[in-house]
Amino acid sequence: MFSQRFAWCSLLAVLALTSLASADDKIRVLIIDGQNNHNWKAMTPPMKADLEQTGRFTVDVATTPEQKAPAADWDAFRPDFSKYDVVLSNYNGQSWPAEVNKSLEQFVEKGGGLVIIHAANNAFSDWKAWNEMIGLGWRGPDFGDRVTVNDKGEAERTEKGKGPGAGHGAQHEFVIITRDREHPVTRGMPAEWKHARDELYHGQRGPAANMHILATAFSDPKTGGTGANEPMIWWIPYGKGRVFTTLMGHVGGPDDPSIRCTGFLTVMERGCEWAATGKVTLPIKSDFPTAEEVRVVPSQPKT
Ligand code: ZN
């Protein structure tokens, strides 16, 4: 009896130490929101909850002042990026104070991760370093080059001024084509998988330097698209840091399914882990979409 109890106590002690260690090892995520032409209030809580339920992350949220807020509110908006391993932007709104921009640039230059979700790439067209970090953004055709992928799987550039600028056709379910099946984020994903109803962005523009495309989608003219394979997931190195973008994730209302897609959620989780650490330990979700079938979680996990 004594030895059994002793063993049980030892086990508890080991478990306690293990949980302490894993708390220290958790990746610290900062989500930024507060302005968006999308329903950011319906996006941040389920994205935060999904990241947290993996057990791999702790997640804080920094919400900016509203549009037309007094200058004093912006003076108080000074997120301390150095406390985090990765910043996830769910923000598309007015410019931040120059001091905040500089602080984010330095954070990524020193090795911090940055993750861009959907319309977050619409923001900050006049922030030079931001455009370098994201590579391509929602911009007009004269802003910069466009990048597509041809039928041989090769990236092709269209110079600025030629071809379409940023846009999207009708919302629909579409197939994501995994172009890099060796990258830690996409390794193990099927070659093709069907994403839940979303906007398929096309004609994104920017400097697109050192852009590594991980996945594309065919932008079908039948749904108002360009007839090209448009980049959907990519990453760009910036200083010692990694900037990871997914164009998926349109949410206009709480019923929009894009961020409940198990493919989107896997990309977000692994993208955050990889941008923060350069490695991926998180598995692909077991109910991952197939080429023919969309898979969504029925409701967002609660924190
Ligand atoms: Zn959208």
Written overview of the protein:
With 303 residues, the protein is α/β, with parallel strands linked by helices. The protein contains 6 helices and 13 strands. Helix content is 26%, strand content 24%. A 9-stranded mixed sheet has the order 2-1-3-4-13-12-11-8-9, with helices on both faces. The chain has a two-stranded antiparallel sheet with strand order 5-6. Strand 12 (229-238) and strand 13 (241-246) form a beta hairpin. It is globular, with a radius of gyration of 20 Å. Residues 14-21 have low confidence and may be disordered. It binds zinc ion. Zinc ion binds at residues 38, 118-119, 199, 250.
Strand content: 15-25%
Structural class: alpha/beta
- CATH topology heading: Rossmann fold
What distance lies between the first and last C-alpha atoms, to the nearest angstrom? 39 Å
Q: What shape does the CA trace take?
A: globular
Strand count: 13
Strand order of the largest sheet: 2-1-3-4-13-12-11-8-9
Largest sheet: 9 strands, mixed
Ions, cofactors and other bound molecules:
zinc ion
Please give the radius of gyration in angstroms.
20 Å
What is the mean pLDDT? Answer: 93
Query: Which CATH architecture is right?
Result: 3-Layer(aba) Sandwich
What is the CATH H-level superfamily? Class I glutamine amidotransferase (GATase) domain
